[in-house]
Amino acid sequence: MPHLFASRRAALLLPAALLAGLLTAACSSAPGTRSAAARPAVIRGHVDHPQSPAVTLVHYRDLITYQYDSLRLPLTADGGFQLRLDTLTRPIELLLAHNQRQLTLFVEPGDSLHLRFDGAEPEQTLRFTGRGAGINTYLAELDRRGMASGLLGTPAGQRIGHADTLRRRATAFRWQQQRLLDSVAARLPLSPAARQFARFGIDYEWGNVQLDYPGFYRYAAKKELPGVDTAYYAFIRQLRLPNDSALHVDGYRSYLSSYLMYRQGGGRANEPANTAAQRRWDQRYLAVLDQTLGRSRSRDEAVAHWLAEAMDFRQPGLVAPLVESFRHSSRDTSLSGLISRRFAQKLKLAPGQSAPAFALADTSGRTVALSSFRGRVVYLDFWATWCGPCLQEMKAAPPLYRAYAGRPDVAFVAVSLDHDAPAWRRWVRRNAHPGVTYLHAPGMETPVAKDYQINGIPSYWLIGPDGRIVDNAPPRPSQLPALQQVIDKARQLGGPTVVRR
């Protein structure tokens, strides 16, 4: 099961749109922070040797479904830019982008932050002055030293073969981060909120890597990490759960997800999303979540994340009672309202609804429309060459394609969401299967991705001969027997081809 709380630093930056919402969304109250009287914050910057005519600031207004606002700021003739947030009531994180490069900013009410960087080498040249410089200097230095992605993103995090080695390296990395924070604090002021933000990030990342790595090792090495026993998990007692004051920190959100999965005893049941086995797994997971988090804000956010994901992999009839239960159990009406609205949107793509039309280019540049497959069952796959799980499913797919070779009533359509079209074409040239139509849509922000509400990939759909959705969460190619069953049912049905499972 993917982490409930994805990292914003790892997010792909989508093209900017000039949205005034950035100015207002940044000013609402948020979990883990105390709202105070609004005070303006000002960000002023200068880009030496600009590589594009603007910078873009991105603010995630919703950490459940990762809805964001972005604001494009054209550079002045001398490379300057400025943004004033007039009614900021809490600390926020922003992503600043220039020429496809991203930097993280931490901004508090009352800040007057000045930054400067070279457009050709932003990470190596970024410097801060003014109020707020301390925490942002720390974040920039983490990035410069290759530490921003955590221990596993460093050379010391590679090729760990024993639990004792992992524990030592995780602890050493933790103290390395703490020493860096102390050295920055010795020369630049850090506010209490900034210091807490940094400390929470350090401590929960330390716990997160120790919870996650045994699973990574098991997947890669096909065996258990030596040295993992009950005593190994003693570090858990040192980290507070729940900790609602840390909900705005990526490290805490990742640790919370890892801990819940540890308590559950592993990843998602290896069953299609709508089976009884998967439903039993889900019920156990929700029980663990309630036992662990009680009636906390962390509990409400974790359930909201789980439901947002479940909508992508469950049929609506199975999700509806869970959404209704959350509406009554959540203490935060904004969260329950968000989930209810999202579910209402998902119902537009429920089985029996018309599949959104599209017309996309294939590798030769020819436009292929979904309507050209009318009269056939279509197994539709949204994927990308940079998506590891997508490629794993692609490797598992040839038996599926062979099973329906020569069957004119079944079509396989793979829509790549790669921004990098040449990378997509290279992959298709090397790996294409003759039974598949390969199409391209450059990114999650394209109309087809929005129409199908693609929030993560791979994403699979089964469309009937009449152009209506049969299944909005069919089994994957690696689940061949179950997938063949739903495809064959769709082939046999007449009229609206809705498969019930």
UniProtKB/TrEMBL annotation:
GO terms for cellular component: cell envelope. Residues 1-25 form the signal peptide. GO terms for molecular function: oxidoreductase activity. It is found in: Cell envelope. The keyword Signal applies. Keywords: Cytochrome c-type biogenesis, Disulfide bond, Redox-active center, Signal. Residues 349-492 form the Thioredoxin domain. Its main location: other. GO terms for biological process: cytochrome complex assembly. The keyword Thylakoid does not apply. CDD domains: TlpA_like_family. Gene3D superfamilies: Glutaredoxin. This is Redoxin domain-containing protein.
